[in-house]
Design brief:
The structure is a single chain. The protein is mostly helical. It has three helices and no strands. The longest helix is centred in the middle third of the chain and has 36 residues. It is elongated and about 55 Å long.
Length: 100
Amino acid sequence: MTAPAAHPTRGYTASKDQLLARLRRIEGQVRGIEKMVEDDRYCIDVLTQISAIQAALDKVALGLLDGHARHCMREGAAEGRADEMATEMMAAVGRLMKRG
């Protein structure tokens, strides 16, 4: 009988609690925008909050990319998958850069 597989270590594992706290804060900001719309707040004020949320999400994404580059790609290179990992990361960056 084999031991159960441990959770894999990800590039963000060490800062997972901070990442989750930041995501919860962003979730609260989104709920705040919902309340702003319910309260018929000025359009520009709503758009300003949307911009702040996008910036916060970008910061989370950059942190995840940093962790991926420093941890996951290093592991992939050690396994002989450096090109595959680089292609995968660049595709993710491309998706992040595409907006409206």
